[in-house]
Amino acid sequence: MALAQHQIDKPPFDVEAIRQDFPALSLTPYGKSLVYLDSAASAQKPEAVIEAEARCYREYYANVHRGVHYLSTKATVAYEDARRNVARFMGAGDPSEIVFVRGTTEAINLVAATYGREHVGEGDEVLITTMEHHSNIVPWQMLCEEKGAKLVVAPIDDRGDIILEELEKIMSERTKLLATVHVSNALGTINPVERIIEMAHERGIPVLLDGAQAAPHLPMNVAELDCEFYTFSGHKAFGPSGIGALYGKKELLDAMPPYQGGGEMIRSVTFEKTEYAPAPARFEAGTPNIAGAIALGATVDYLEAIGMGAIQAYEEELLAYGTSALESVSGLRLIGTAVHKASVLSFVMDGVHPHDIGTILDREGIAVRTGHHCAQPVMDRYGVAATARASLAFYNTKEEIDRLIAGLEKVREIFG
Ligand code: PLP
User: Fold this and answer.
1) Domains (ranges, CATH) in the chain?
2) Parallel, antiparallel, or unpaired for β 387-391 and 369-371?
3) pLDDT at position 6, please?
4) pLDDT of 334-359, one tens digit each?
5) Does the predicted model carry a pTM greater than 0.85?
6) Is the CB of 104 within 6 Å of ligand 1?
7) 175 lines ligand 1 (CB under 6 A)
8) 227 assigned to active site
9) Considering only CA atoms, which of 104, 116, 192 is closest in space to residue 156?
10) Which residue minimizes the CA distance to atom 5 of ligand 1?
11) Is residue 33's pLDDT more than 80?
12) How far is the CA of 198 from the centre of ligand 1 (A)?
């Protein structure tokens, strides 16, 4: 993807300076300096984000879109500025194409319950892939059950790449939506979304991309991608929890029925009839996460100041280092070895349960995730119940990967 000029003209990447921005990185669990390798579950927050949220509560907190008073006006301006920032970060042409949601899960449920309910009928199909997070499976399953439609699943190969020829074969005139992850949380695969969207659009199939694991790692441009919907969660992208964004093409959002009813999403209400507000207000019923949205605006400002291109380049180096380091650990098998990967290292070790790996590493001050990563069908595909997952972010270092390897050597010593 072509980088914007502001992503190219950056000072050299200085990971030590960046680490100073994240207070949590100097914590010392069990007296050991923290090695935080669980950013795919939720990332740590820079001071700029913490401060933006605190400043809102301290200096200009009030409800938005409702009051004529000073504080409400100020909060509303900041909330809508944040929407503009997020639109710019995502490459959306118009801020009204950005709906603030709780996160990726809510965004996908929103699309399934509105666009999905209107466009998917009996005998239709919704197409997903084997490597989806549960939040891009269950809402479609629920919709298909309700409508008598079918959930169709594109297979992946042993490395963790979508088999494009198979995907193409199962697209048909019955396919009403293709919903796929951009970057897999369990495997790290970066899907060839440009090609997938092209294939889908040739057949008139709209595409939703789950960008929960892409937004923290890759430059994003929804206009260039030309996808119909794109979503990410603030908390995985170094922002607050409980806030995220759904991008939808304007003409689609404008035509979609509301998700939830209540205040904020209406133009007028009588007991006989309600007229709905235009998008995005139509999809933001009730008091939103005001401070969270404002802090999400500060988050994307922070990321853009570093440059997503620079972040991607640094992480590629880190991932290559981590991959070869893990391959040197005896009896360790990487799950997910796709050609194009983002910073996820999922693995199993002969004779050791992933939870034991996680517990031993934890006592060394190293935080990794263990379990099925809310992607049980992926675990089934590889014949494992769970994996240990070290997930990297741009604040991690090669020295931290060395600490991980030393921790795993300890696991090996204990389990033989
Ligand atoms: N999609 C992917 C790929 C994820 O990794 C996650 C969270 O792990 C989600 C969706 C759900 O995100 P959230 O829990 O923030 O709604």
Assistant:
1) 7-36+307-415 (3.90.1150.10), 50-305 (3.40.640.10)
2) antiparallel
3) 45
4) 999 999 999 899 999 999 999 999 99
5) yes
6) yes
7) no
8) no
9) 192
10) 185
11) yes
12) 25
